[in-house]
């Protein structure tokens, strides 16, 4: 299917099973039901929230089976799944054996775009291990500065289905896509797309690094204008080489150094474009200053360059790149400055839930008291600790898999003092901040960059970040 073509499916009487309630499952069930499909929703959970959601759908005439997410209802002709469900689930194995297609919420949105009779907006897509949400929000800010009707949607928490089927008309969508979503999106064809970086993550879901990378690489399939890659991460360029793209689609790199032809990069504190100019062998277009990027940490400058590359691929003028970056404000819990107490900075990067994100976070500061730990998700920490050892004033460890980080510190940074907190109650973060404050010296940064998921102690990384900020504020009151 070409990038501009819109799929038409006769949904009337089609038996569709929607796997999972929640952010993607409920809009999918509603949209399919409205189009005449016979919808059955299956869901693993049977808690109070799930029952309330089920009641709303059942009132519309949609069948919901709670606590029965592993079995395939008879007569199913299509499965539409929430992105988090693992591919080896019995329901999917049964569907594959029966020859039943499995789509994700992104695939369904792609197939339904234009279904409301309006012209389908092109997608500018972003994936990668880290930086997706920030880059997509930067991109949306740039597109808005260019006067375009747009929205940041997808894995960012705004349903793609709502965006493509809602009342609002868009000129272009800035779309964040996870590896889970891409796995179940076989016919997606973006206008342009970027893979920001690749590092081991979600390997329990994908089964191997190769399978994870292959799913990320799906974002480039069928691109029409630009495939944007990270010049510092050869694996992202490899994915461009392997992609089957439309004739004339270009490979566009971004780098924190001086850009070559067909790249965006940085020269003397200026973000410059040598890709979308008349003579890229000899010319460079100034886009913005590094100081226009908030915050101007190295990995965030890389995010800004990727966003700029996608915007420029869509024809956005340089001034809009600058204005969009200046207007952008990062989400909470992403290298967020909480307070300065006694010449020590306290920074919340709770969103750094894997080693790759934490490596970038640690690289942004010179002398750090590092608060880390949680659920490791199969990660190892030797490389992270080796790279950061010279920057570490001290480390405070907490969470279920903290021993893995402690062992890496023992091997590669034995001189760095470590506090090991053997508690998981609500007061643990307060104690962690107090220990970090005692280790810190004027000029240091106390950095929450856990390198781990949060669910062993907190509902999500947001709650973990809020607990850190609360603990820092409480420490400030004591120190006043």
How does the overall form come out from the CA principal axes? Answer: globular
Q: Which stretches are poorly predicted, pLDDT < 50 over at least 5 residues?
A: none
Please provide the count of β strands.
Answer: 20
Enumerate the strands of the largest sheet in spatial order, edge to edge or round the barrel. 7-8-6-9-10-11-12-13-14
Topology:
Layout (H helix, E strand, L loop, with lengths): L14 E5 L2 H13 L3 E6 L4 H11 L4 E4 L11 E4 L8 H8 L3 E4 H8 L10 E5 L4 H14 L6 E3 L5 H6 L7 E4 L2 H5 L8 E4 L7 H4 L2 H9 L8 E5 L3 H9 L7 E5 L8 E5 L2 E4 L11 E5 L8 H16 L4 H10 L8 E6 L2 E5 L6 H8 L5 E5 L9 H7 L3 E6 L4 H11 L5 E3 L7 H12 L5 E4 L12 H19 L1
Helix pairs in contact: 5-11, 5-12, 9-10, 16-17
Kindly describe this structure.
The chain has a 9-stranded mixed sheet, sandwiched between helices. A 6-stranded mixed sheet has the order 15-16-20-17-18-19, with helices on both faces. A 5-stranded parallel sheet has the order 3-2-1-4-5, with helices on both faces. The mean pLDDT is 92. The chain has 17 helices and 20 strands. Helix 1 links the parallel strand 1 and strand 2. Helix 5 packs across helix 12 and helix 9 crosses helix 10. It starts with 14 loop residues before the first strand and ends with a helix. It is globular and about 70 Å long. The chain is α/β, with parallel strands linked by helices and 480 residues long.
Task: Give a quick rundown of the structure.
This protein has 480 residues and is an alpha/beta fold.
């Amino acid at each position: 299917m070409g990038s501009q073509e819109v799929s038409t499916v006769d949904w009337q009487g089609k038996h569709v099973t929607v796997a999972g309630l929640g952010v993607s499952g409920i809009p999918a069930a509603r949209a399919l039901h409205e189009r005449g499909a016979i919808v059955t929703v299956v869901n693993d959970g049977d808690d109070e929230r799930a029952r309330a959601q089920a009641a709303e759908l059942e009132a519309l005439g949609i069948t919901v089976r709670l606590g029965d997410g592993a079995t395939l209802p008879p007569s199913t002709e299509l499965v539409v799944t929430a992105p988090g469900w693992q591919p080896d689930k019995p329901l999917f194995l049964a569907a594959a054996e029966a020859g039943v297609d499995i789509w994700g919420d992104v695939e369904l949105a792609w197939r339904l775009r234009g279904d409301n009779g309006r012209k389908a907006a092109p997608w500018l897509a972003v994936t990668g291990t880290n930086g997706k949400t920030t880059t997509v929000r930067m991109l949306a800010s740039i597109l808005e500065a260019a006067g375009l009707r747009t929205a940041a949607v997808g894995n960012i928490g705004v349903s793609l289905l709502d965006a493509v089927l809602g009342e609002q008309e868009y000129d272009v969508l800035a779309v964040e896509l996870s590896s889970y979503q891409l796995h179940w999106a076989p016919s997606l064809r973006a206008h342009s797309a970027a893979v920001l970086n690749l590092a081991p993550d979600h390997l329990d879901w994908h089964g191997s690094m190769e399978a994870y990378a292959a799913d990320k690489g799906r974002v480039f399939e069928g691109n029409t204008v630009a495939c944007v890659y990270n010049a510092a991460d050869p694996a992202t360029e490899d994915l461009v080489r392997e992609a089957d793209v439309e004739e004339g689609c270009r490979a566009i790199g971004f780098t924190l150094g001086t850009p070559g032809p067909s790249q965006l990069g940085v020269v003397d504190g200026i973000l410059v474009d040598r890709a979308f100019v008349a003579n890229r062998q000899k010319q460079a277009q100034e886009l913005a200053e590094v100081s226009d990027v908030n915050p101007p940490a190295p990995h965030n400058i890389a995010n800004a360059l990727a966003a700029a590359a996608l915007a420029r691929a869509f024809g956005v003028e340089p001034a809009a790149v600058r204005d969009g970056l200046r207007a952008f404000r990062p989400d909470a819990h992403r290298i967020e400055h909480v307070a300065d107490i006694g010449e020590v900075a306290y920074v919340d990067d709770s969103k750094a839930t894997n080693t790759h994100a934490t490596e970038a976070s640690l690289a942004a500061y010179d002398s750090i008291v590092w608060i880390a730990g949680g659920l490791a998700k199969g990660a190892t920490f030797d490389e992270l600790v080796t790279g950061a050892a010279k920057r570490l004033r001290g480390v405070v460890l907490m969470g279920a898999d903290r021993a893995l980080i402690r062992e890496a510190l023992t091997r590669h940074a034995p001189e760095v003092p470590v506090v090991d907190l053997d508690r998981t109650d609500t007061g643990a973060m307060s104690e962690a901040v107090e220990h970090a404050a005692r280790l810190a010296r004027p000029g240091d940064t106390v950095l929450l960059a856990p390198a781990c998921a949060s669910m062993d102690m907190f509902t999500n990384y947001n709650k973990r970040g809020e607990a850190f900020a609360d603990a820092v504020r409480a420490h400030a009151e004591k120190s006043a």
